[in-house]
Design a protein that fits this description.
The chain is of the alpha/beta class and about 170 residues long. The protein is about 35% helix and about 15% strand.
Length: about 170
Amino acid sequence: AWEDRHRPHEKLRMGLVWSGNPRHDNDHNRSIPLRLLTHILDVDATFVSLQKDPKPDDKATLLERTEIIDLTAHLTDFAETAALVSCLDLVISVDTSVVHLAGALGRPTWIFLPYRPDWRWLLGRDDSPWYPTVRLFRQSETREYGSVLDRVRTELHATISARKAR
């Protein structure tokens, strides 16, 4: 059913999650406002929101950004989220349960990590021993996401170019 909702599949399909549970101890370091992701939205791809319960400012941005498809009202449980993630070419997310789901499903997943990440992401590497399809994009010592988003944007362009070359 999720695959049928996304026909045709002409462009790379990317799922986005920009915010975690606000009650999480480190949420202020891991979550980012959706408006910051607009820096990567100009690539030739289809973006799909996987963000449950967006914050008010993010909800307003989501309504403004017509290039992001929001079907989260249909994500009634984690099985539905898994089904949608299975239809995506790439998941781009902050450190939330969705990255663990996507990694467990073997889906390509890029994770934005804060300067001091959760222990499971280790240090000094851009891959994960737990999920071979995950790439880690870490904040620099300046503790800002601008340089992370620049790297992601560059990698997105390369990924899209490689797909078109096939």
